[in-house]
Amino acid sequence: MKYTKQTDYKRLLYGFIVLSIAIILTLPWLGLGHFYTRGEPREALVAVAMMEQGNYILPTFQGEFAFKPPMLHWLVSLFSLPQGYVSEYTARMPSAIASIAMVFAFFAFYSRRVTPLKALTASLILMTCFEVHRAAMTCRVDMVLMAFTVGSMLALYKWIENGCRKLPLMASLLASGAILTKGPIGVILPCFSMVAYLLIRQERWQKTVVAGIKFITLSAIIPIFWYIAAYHQGGEKFLQLVMEENFGRFLGKMSYESHENGIFYNVVMLLAGFAPYTLIPAFGLFVIKWKMPNFRKSSLINLWNRFRSIDNARLFAIVTAICIFVFYCIPKSKRSVYLLPMYPFTALLLSDYIIYLYNEKRAVIRTFFLLVASLAAIYSIGLIVLHNADLSFLGDSRSSRRIICQMSELQRMPINAYYVAAVMLPAFVAAISLLISKKKANAILFGSIAIWTAMTMTLDSILNPAIKNSVPDFQFAQSAKVYQPDGRIYFYRPDGVFVETVYTVAFYLDDKIISYTGRTPLPDNGYIMVKEANKEKFLNDMADYNLSEIVVTSNEFTSFKGNLLLFEFNKTMVTP
Q1: pLDDT tens across 488-501, in order?
Q2: Can you give the residue ranges of every domain in the chain?
Q3: Name one GO cellular component term (predicted).
């Protein structure tokens, strides 16, 4: 595209907007809400183990290795070093920083290859859509992997622009980071996309193969040192874990439940992940002109030639998005977060379509704008009304009881200036956007994004903390610490039966939980936790002890499903 001083000014202004919104959407809210799932504390516990053991290669926690390579845990440890311990905020920080860096790099890259307005629109869609924002706010490997993978793909494209000369150092360095985040998939996805793109451009086979070999070889150099060091510590057990997590997951031969889903799962998750922006192309279906597809050979050849004639930046985005989607349709194990690396490229294509609708079918964008504005008003008013509502009308089903627990936590929040400001923000932004839209037509597009951004901030500042804090794991751990302040509490696992660690409770007990199987020795007195489902076996195994149940989780909606009990035990004195 042609550059002018005005274009450079727009790039700088829009870049500042993208960076500012990316920061505001994430960093202020990371520490609000305790861990409430198994995944977050499991990753955080690895960082805790690293800092306590001084082992940054393959630390063990709760008797097991980490399931993933150490990049996320290194970053959590790094951000936790200034305060000396891992907290919810520092554990989630790598994902937030990765999200900010990825979105800004994406904007900087594409603002030079498409118009700054389209790059801005794509970046705003990317950072505010449901799936990407959720990943940016959690202590999981997915956002860090996404940032490294997308960065590697963008760097590969720049290398291709330069004729694949010299070595793809930046792309390989970023792919190394991706490998150290989640394994070989970090280099497979970028390489697959690059090869497909080069073949579609009809590059010579020799050039394509050499480019792939250069990239893979360079990308493997740094990670191989970690794998060798980790194997030296973990031996065959580590090797088996690596094989299972990478090849077993791909082939659907895991030793534990691994999110097996059908072929249409990825389609549904992609549509849901781009919420609310998927509504725009859905509305657009009603205004486009439909034609019967023509499958004659000449028509297909013409279609293929038109596809290949698309400008390189968009062609690369299309090919990359398709490659990632197709790749993740192959394994039985499917999760919505696996598709994250395709989101930036899909967002670019979606922004093209949205801007087309704005220019040619503006009624579609206006309908979406009015819908989002209406939802914002309902959202704000609903959170105020809900604060004092009688929740008994929801009923007594399990799902109703869960919602009541979550909303009861919301009702315990004080209605102060912070609460009112946070709750009314979406309605306020909607009102301002409606007023501006009467004078400026483009307010219906960016006003929609602004309203959704405000709704997301309300979610993170008010609603999500209530939902997270309604999970009783944290409160249980604090109650247990009253009896055993150092956190050294036993956890019952029936002998011969796999029982997963209660990761959230373990994190809040400072990773001091000690496993007990019924055969391992116990002291004469102490404290022991047991899942309610294992209570009967536990009582049989503890027949030689006097037991007193002293703490139980306040509700059944724990991160591990079901109640957790804390017993005090004392050895029964046998009289001679």
Answers
A1: 999 999 887 778 88
A2: 5-360, 367-469, 473-571
A3: plasma membrane
